[in-house]
């Protein structure tokens, strides 16, 4: 399946073995209609079922954004073994659901992800 390189903010959550709701955020490396790879310091375990939401960049001059959401299964986790290399994980889903464009206030939920992305860029 073709994957498209796309660095977009993502938030995700899953339930731990202790039934606690866990949450993480990161940036996609690539995405396909049925999956994605997410760079993040907080990786869910392999085989975990997660809810993931990706904020797509505006396609026009408007400042509206589009979200895609999915329930997905974690296929693999790639831990950080080298300095300057981010850890991440790959997921597989039955497909993403597309949500209509919204106003700028949506971005406020992703402020921490945007700061994380900026810090990764400054490390390059």
Fold topology:
Blueprint: E1 4-5, E2 9-15, E3 21-32, E4 35-39, E5 49-56, E6 65-78, E7 88-93, E8 97-102, H1 111-123
Antiparallel strand pairs: 1-3, 2-3, 2-5, 3-4, 4-7, 5-6, 6-7, 6-8
Description:
With 124 residues, this protein is mainly β. Helix content is 10%, strand content 48%. It has a six-stranded antiparallel barrel with strand order 2-3-4-7-6-5. The longest helix has 13 residues, at 111-123. The protein is globular and about 40 Å long. Mean pLDDT is 82; it is low at 104-108.
By DSSP (H or I, 4+ residues per run), the number of helices equals 1
Q: Tally of extended strands?
A: 8
- Largest sheet data: 6 strands, antiparallel, barrel
What form results from the Cα inertia axes?
globular
Order of helices and strands: EEEEEEEEH
Mean pLDDT: 82
Structural class: mainly beta
What is the CA-atom radius of gyration, in angstroms?
14 Å
Instruction: For the largest sheet, list the strands in their spatial order.
Output: 2-3-4-7-6-5
Provide the low-confidence segments as ranges.
Answer: 104-108
**Beta content:** over 45%
Oligomer: single chain
Give the proportion of residues in helices: 10-25%
Task: Give a short summary of the structure.
This protein has 124 residues and is mainly β.
Characteristic terms for this protein:
1 helix; 124 residues; 8 strands
């Amino acid at each position: 399946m073709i994957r498209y390189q796309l660095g977009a903010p993502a938030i995700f959550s899953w339930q731990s073995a202790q039934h606690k709701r866990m949450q993480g955020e990161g940036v996609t490396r690539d995405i396909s209609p049925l999956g994605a790879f997410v760079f993040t310091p907080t990786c869910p375990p392999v085989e975990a079922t997660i809810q993931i939401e990706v904020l797509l960049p505006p396609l026009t001059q408007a400042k509206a954004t589009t979200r895609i959401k999915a329930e997905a299964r974690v296929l693999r986790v790639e831990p950080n073994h080298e300095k300057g290399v981010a850890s991440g994980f790959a997921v597989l889903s039955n497909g993403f659901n597309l949500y209509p464009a919204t106003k700028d206030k949506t971005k406020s939920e992703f402020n921490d992800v945007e700061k994380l992305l900026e810090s990764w860029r400054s490390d390059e």
